[in-house]
Specification:
Layout: H1 15-20, E1 24-31, H2 36-48, E2 51-57, H3 66-72, E3 81-84, H4 87-96, E4 100-104, E5 111-112, E6 124-128, H5 137-142, E7 145-148, H6 160-176
Parallel strand pairs: 1-2, 1-6, 2-3, 4-6, 4-7, 5-7
Helix pairs in contact: 2-3, 2-6
Length: 179
């Protein structure tokens, strides 16, 4: 028989422990995200997988914010973040630091997520774009590549927080399994 674990059994990190923990070599760039709930949800996912940093760009709101907090549940206190109005500046800065930047978008010659193989000892940044317009063409153009989540239904679109959860989990587990 299975029993649900109690909160005290989950071995949750304190904020200080989280800050000291080795991070996954993954950063997230949120560009022009209008939904505060999506932003909070990405913070929460980032906390769960020890994401290095979140870059909030364009119209993307920043903490502290009551609506972001509703879904982040305190992850804005653990996950490192910074705001820059210009996503292109963030991409160029990260590329200058030898971070591979991938837009998560449906574009020509995108690599399907299931076929994407990360490199050992390499840092990655994932760009997630506006809920209606996606990642801007300018950001796509200067990215190192694009990752597409294979979708088989009629919509061919996922909520940005769902997309972030799928891609972060996939990349996280692939990086953890590298020899």
């Amino acid at each position: 028989m299975m029993r649900k674990l109690e909160n005290k059994e989950l071995e949750r990190k304190s904020i200080a422990d989280f800050k000291q923990a080795e991070k996954a070599p993954i950063s997230i760039i949120l560009d022009d995200i209008r939904s505060l709930h999506n932003i909070g949800s990405v913070f929460r996912t980032s906390d769960a997988f020890l994401i290095e940093k979140i870059y909030l760009c364009g119209i993307t709101a920043t903490p502290p914010n009551k609506e972001i907090h509703k879904t982040a549940l305190g992850a804005t206190e653990t996950v490192s973040w910074e705001y820059n109005n210009n996503v292109i500046e963030v991409i160029e800065k990260l590329k200058h630091e030898n971070v591979l930047v991938y837009a998560v978008e449906q574009v020509e010659n995108a690599k399907f997520l299931n076929d994407f193989l990360p490199l050992k000892n390499q840092k990655y940044a994932l760009i997630f774009g506006n809920e209606v317009y996606g990642v801007s063409q300018e950001a796509v153009k200067i990215s190192d590549g694009c990752i597409e989540i294979p979708q088989l239904g009629t919509k061919h679109s996922l909520n940005i927080s769902v997309s972030a959860g799928i891609v972060v989990w996939d990349l996280f587990q692939k990086l953890k399994s590298l020899p």
